[in-house]
Write a structure and sequence with these properties.
With 385 residues, the chain is an alpha/beta fold. It has two domains: 135 residues, Aspartate Aminotransferase, domain 1; 240 residues, 3-Layer(aba) Sandwich (Aspartate Aminotransferase, domain 2). The chain contains twelve helices and twelve strands. α7 links the parallel β6 and β7.
């Protein structure tokens, strides 16, 4: 077989139509959207249409959509922007112990600036403990941030229940969701969920890298973290990345076409893979893998083989996967998520993440399983001597 790409939680191949549109906007409709002439107006139209696309998909207003350079910037803008704008009301923030580094490291930075942060524990399936959330809330709390889908083990968080708990305690506390792994797999409606801010990334939905959005509810008090020409109502300065914005918009429209069919196919392949991989001795599938988990992420521990070794052995066979999370730099370190869910010691540096997309086929899953059946016993012989 050719290459088999099972690292779609790290990034995805852009849809062909997206690549073509990005090129067209870069090379033909290249005006600055702030320019007053026809070229500028044509560029601005792409931004207007993209806002309308996301407003429709999220069931929000176009004016509540801000374009960013990706999930990391969206998370930073949500956390830092809200913390700085609302610190008179309190300096307590809440998140979970298994968030993406874009949340965890921003929270740590805010701690250095005098904010107090509570990191909620999760159960062994990677779901936030709602009792701990209830206990953590206090009169000083101004923001809660919980991810929709965990990027390493695919656990889906009870967002609606969590937001309900927060709003019942104090409706002024803002609720942020990092939906980078959830958008394009689930229909996410922030207003229905009682969510005030929501981060989305382009390159996880077959769109261009360097693109993202942040939904900001119209009543949210937020300060910018980037300063300049006051574009996007001065929430996010800088000439808008029009090719990227056109690209993320088309990717979003495309991924939601026949979504239920695509997700059902991924779920079938996930079950096929889990059933197959469980036949290998001394393996563990982390988190839940039923209908309540994400359709595309599978985290498997292979006792006795370091993640990196198995990753490169699969790579030699044309199969691309990642060890834990590939969203931080390639410095190998023990996963905080696996520690958080209480994974056994022998799996902490011996886990791979297999993540699918709508392009993944049954043949690719079967070839990957056959390859694992061959190489895992051989590598164990080698490493256990």
């Amino acid at each position: 077989m050719g290459e088999i790409y099972l690292d779609n939680s790290a990034t995805t191949r852009a849809y062909d139509c997206v690549g073509e549109l990005v090129k067209k906007v870069m090379c033909e409709d290249y005006g600055n959207p702030s320019s007053m002439h026809a070229k500028g107006v044509a560029a601005e139209q792409y931004i207007k249409e993209a806002k309308e696309t996301f407003a429709k998909l999220l069931k929000v207003q176009p004016k509540e959509i801000v374009f960013t350079s990706g999930g990391t910037e969206s998370d930073n803008l949500a956390l830092r922007g809200v913390a700085m704008a609302n610190q008179r009301a309190g300096k307590h923030l809440i998140t979970t112990a298994i968030e993406h580094p874009a949340i965890i490291n921003t929270m740590r930075h805010l701690e250095e600036e005098g904010f107090r942060v509570t990191y909620l524990p999760v159960d062994r399936y990677g779901r936030v403990k709602l009792d701990a959330l209830k206990e953590a809330l206090c009169k000083d709390t101004i923001l809660v941030s919980i991810m929709y889908v965990n990027n390493e083990v695919g656990s889906v968080q009870p967002i609606q229940e969590a937001a309900g708990i927060v709003k019942a305690y104090n409706q002024n506390i803002l609720f942020h969701v990092d939906a980078v792994q959830g958008f394009g797999k689930y229909r996410i409606y922030p207003k229905k969920l009682k969510v005030d801010l929501c981060s989305i990334s382009g390159h996880k939905i077959h769109g261009p890298k360097g693109t993202g959005i942040l939904y900001i509810g119209e009543n949210v008090k937020i300060k910018p973290i980037v300063f300049g020409g006051e574009q996007q109502k001065n929430i996010r300065s800088g000439t808008e990345n029009v090719p990227g914005i056109a690209g993320i918009s088309l990717a979003a429209r495309t991924i939601y076409q026949d979504l239920d069919v695509k997700v059902a196919q991924m779920r079938r392949l996930k079950q096929r893979f889990i059933k197959g991989v469980s036949q290998i001795e001394d393996t563990a599938t982390h988190g839940l893998y039923d209908e309540t988990s994400a359709p595309h992420i599978i985290s498997v521990g292979f006792a006795g083989i370091r993640s990196e070794v198995l990753l490169h052995a699969l790579e030699e066979k044309g199969i691309y996967v990642s060890s834990g999370s590939a969203c931080s730099s390639n410095h190998p370190q023990v996963s905080g998520v696996l520690k958080g869910i209480g994974a056994r010691q022998e799996f902490l540096d011996a886990t791979l993440r297999f993540s699918m997309s709508e392009f993944t086929t049954p043949k690719e899953i079967d070839y990957t399983l056959d390859t694992l059946y061959n190489i895992v016993p051989n590598l164990r012989k080698y490493t256990r001597r």
